[in-house]
Each structure stands twice: as C-alpha cells, then as structure tokens.
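User: Predict the structure for this protein chain, please.
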Amino acid sequence: MSSTVSPLLRTDLDGVFRPQSVAIYGISDRTSQRIAENMKVPGVPFYGINPTKPEACGVRCYPSMAECPAVPEMVVMGIGHGRIEAAVEDVLSVPGVRAIITPGLGNEAGVHGPDISDRIRDRVLEAGVAMIGPNCMGVATPGAPSPWIGSLHRTFIPGPVATLAHSGSIGEILVSLGPRIGFRTVISAGNETVTDVADMIGYFAEDDQTRVVGLFLETIRRPVAFEAALQRLAEAGKVAIVLKVGTSDMGRQAALTHTGALVGDDRSFSAMLRYYNAIRVDDFGTWLEHLEVFSRATPPRGRRIGALTNSGGEGEYFADKAEQAGIPLQPFSPELRARIVAEFPNFRDAVHVGNPVDCWAIDDDRVVFPRVFQLMAESGEFDVLVSDIDHSQWLHGGERTLARNIADDLLAATRGTDLFPAVITVTTADPPIEDLEWAREHDIPLLKGSLPGLRALAARLAHRPRAPLDRRVDPAPPLAGSGALPELDSARIAAGYGVPYVRAERCVDAGEAVAAAERIGYPVVVKVDNVAHKARVGGVALGLADAAGVRDAAERMGGRVIVAEQVSGGVEVLVGMVRDEDYGATVVVGIGGALAEALDLVTASLAPLDRAGASELVTSLPALERLLGGEIPSGLVDAIVAVSRMAAEHPEISEIDINPLLVSPQRAVALDCLITLGNSEESAA
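Assistant: Here is the predicted structure, written as structure tokens:
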C-alpha cells in the first residue's frame, strides 16, 4: 500500500458519470447483452476485452487491455469472482483508466467473496482509481454510457435529480418510474469498498447538471466524510432528500446482514442532516414526491396555498391532509368570495366558497374552472395554486379530459406570474404518460397521493437554502473536573454563556437552608445537592412556604442541599447537548419537565447554531411551537444559541442538561442544570 494520505473526499468521478470511452472486461453474448446495450452511446468508443472472442454483443473484442487500441476511461468487470483479481490487475496495468464498475462479488462469490473484495479494494485504492461496487446494479445516466445490469426504458429521462441507493432493487424502481422525475443519474452503490456515497455527494455538489440529490441509505461508512460532503452540497445551494433504513431493531439487523454495516445513532444523524439543510423522510412514496417537487426549477415565493377541486369530499380530505402536513389552508378573503359568487351565483352564497373551492356543477366546466383560477391568481392572496383533481391512467372519456383541461386552466392562470403551480392527484396510481410529459414541459410538479404530495410541498415551502456555520470553533480554556458537575457549578458555567439561573444557595445543613430561604424569599424549592435526576430519588421539595417546611425537607435529604427560589409561569422546555461519537456536539430541544424522557418530544441539530438556526430548530417541533403559542420567545433562542456555543467551545463537555428551562414571553430561566465532563480527547474525536 502507498503511504500517501488519501483525501477525505475523492470526487474525480467524471470517469463514472461522463466517460469518454468505455469497455466491458469479460464481455460475452450470454451475460452482457443488457449492460452492453445500455453502454452504447453514439460518439463514445466502446471496447470489449475477451481473449477468446473476436466480437460479443456487437462490440469488437481484444485479448487484453494492452492490446486495446485506446485506454477506456471506464471499465466494467463482467467476470466471475474466480478470475476477477487477475482481470483487475490487467485493467490497472495501463495508465488512463479512471473508473471501474464491479457489479459482482455479492452472494454468488460465496465465502471467498469478502477476502477477494478486500484485496481488490486495496489494489484499486493504491492505483487512485474510482470504483463503484462491488455487489451493485451499476450506474444509469440518461444520455450517457450506463453500466447498468438491468433494463433501461426510453421513459428514463434526463433531469436534475441525482440518486444514490444502497439497494439495487430500489435502483431498479427508480429507473422504471416513467417520465415524471428527470434523473441526472441513478447509482446502485453496493458495498462501497472504494468510492462511497460521500465521494459522490461531493461530486454532485460541483456538478452543474445536478440540483437535487436523493439518498436511499442503509448505513454511513465514513461519517466525517459524509458530513463534509453535505456541507459542500449546502454551500452550493443544493438539497439532499434522505431516506435511511435500519432505524428499527430488525431494520438494523437486516442492514448489518445486507451490507456488513454498522448503523449509528439515528437522532444524531437527523441532527446532522438538519444542520446542512438536508431533508429526511421516513417513507419511500413521500421520498419520491420530494424528489419530484424539488426537481422543479422555480421555487415558491411563500406559503399561502389556494386550491381548487371538483369534489366537496375530496376538498375536505385535501384540507385535512394539508393541516396534517403542517400547511393548513386559510379561508378566501370576503372580497374574493364575493367576487366569485357575483360571477357564479350557483355557489348560492359566499359560505360555499371554501378552500379548496369546489367548482363542480356550478357552471359549464370550461367557464367556471378557468375563471375561478384566474380570480384566485389575480387576488394576491396566494403564493401557491393547486389543482386538486385526480389524474389516473385508468380514467377515460370525459373524466380524463376534465382532469387535463383543469390542469391547463391552472397553467394559464399562473403563466407570466411568480405563483407556484402544482397538481396533486388524490390517487397514487400513475397519471397518463401525456400528463407526466406535460408537467415536465411546463415545470409543474405532478404529485401523487394527497398526504405524500402535501408533505413534499410543505417541505419545499419551508426550505430556505442557507450556508451552514463553520463548525471549527476555537476552544475555550478547559473546564476543571470530571464526570457530572454539581448543579450550582453547572449553572454558573451556563450563566457565563448567557443562560440565566434562578437565585439559589448551597447549604451544608438544615440551619443554613432556613437562612438561605429567608434571604431568597418564600416560596422556595429545596433539592439534594450533587445528584442527577433528583426527582427520581425524592430529592426535590417544591413550594415550601415557611421555615419549618424548609428545615424538614433539608433534614430528610441529609442536610447538604440547594435552596432556590420557586419560579412559575411559563412553558417547561428541555435544552441540552449530547456529544455523538460520529457527528460531535448535538443540541437537543424539546418539551421539558418531569415527563421529558417519557414524552420524548425533542428535536436536534449540530452545534454551533446562530439565532436563525435556533429558531428553525424550535419550529421543527410543532408540539413545542404550539405550547409556546406560535411565537418563539427571544430568551429561548438565546439559551439554545448559548448551549450550542458552550458545547462547541468545550470539547471536554460530553453532556448538557437544562431541564426545565422555564420560558415565557418575558424571559427564560433555568430551574435545573447539569453539565457532564468526559475525556477531552475522546470528546473532540
């Protein structure tokens, strides 16, 4: 092995995605017909390497790489595990090969497969050549040579979405979706022994043909490199849509069995994605709808949605699902309703003009649908107009014509404006191919299924590309001590970063506790000193209003206690930090108090955070936002930023737990605080 240190991201991947010449090593008429067909592109030289045949799959063959008239940039290994090592040596013996695709070395290689794979990995890494696989379907790129071992149809069309899947069968689904989503490429990454998902994300960050990166992941093999790649993607103003499997116990076991991969902490993984503007989804259908809506070039200008339907029931269902997706619909203004009723009296009165507005049987459909869309567009009340009409390939006759006509009405109403048009079809059946082609031609997302479509639309409405903060922070002088620090010591450190703490005193006996209570003023709280999770061990007494109560509580707790002012009025919030071994300091915010762990209603992001990032973190947890009354108090934002800065500047801190932070519109004050110090070198790793 070479002693040269490899770069964190190996992004010289034009040989994979833009090869100027290609070859199949071991090409044969029996095993290579489909992949050879996929790799034939006019103007791109294609060679076969096979010492026993002069021609295969319509491609001229040469006995070895040295005898090939030119060096192919990409070589596909179409050879069994028994001879693949010698074949790889032959490939690497000629300078100029930039990429190797290795579909094999999966289960068919038996017990010898892993050792063979390891030796090939070492050799390819030493040569500095990219390699996709082993154990993969390959790479499918519309309009370019595609080393893909499955079938590719003409409906696999180009576009701005680059997708990477650890599952070959997921890759097969993607190339067979039809002409709805346009793909930059589809990669079946396989076992990633050389080139992995981090390298490819880094490549797509710089690729001018890519706008969206879709990731179907079973594992992250190099967390540091993966984070660096997502940072590049965010800095380029691009978005990753991520579906990660292996979050359940059985899923983790399947991931381990399938790829030999270890699955990391899921919450920290989500925190890392949020930090770099990536969007995580938990359902395959929803993932596809995200890819569709984010692939459209023109973003929405705002969140106000107006919808039109041809069914009262479907309209009510749409409104319910919109609220469930976090984008509740607002009523039309009285002025707009009045204008609609004035032109179409069959609505009877303004009460019957809802959102969505049901135009069925109000007038001739070629009159009412286009005119109501036009009135909505002219009103200035909306940023997004939606046609909530079913588009199914199984519709025919008048129903089929109606759906397409209303889509054309939507297009006409929004053409020449900055309104964002979208079609959301109730069914998840495929729309007619003509409708898919129409949607792509006019840059209009055609979304399948009301809830998956609305969730994808909600994500597009909420997405605001921003450059992530630099996580490299100069460390502060290390804190003294180890393990869990006493509460008042923890609170003093937090207060130094701007997190207020209640008035409190440490007392060595019951007499001091009574004196402290008199100074602080009743009512007070008495709690045992230097014990984490005090409430679990009966170490907290609340609302003590006199000296007798304080004395009794202090004596029961052994004398050494903390006496603190009793503060009320506000929402109890948890603000904390855990240091993940892969992604470092992870800030956690959620519903706090005694039931914080039982409720487990938290959200997370990496540190450090600025005020915008802290606010976005709170809004990502709707339950907490509702408790706060829809407004995020400045004191809460300050506390989150302070905790994130404390974590970033002190790698020796392994955990921070402020629970609860009592938050009101006027202030945020910590009622309890615990800081735990770990090994500084381990924490910084």
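The first helix runs from residue 14 to 17.
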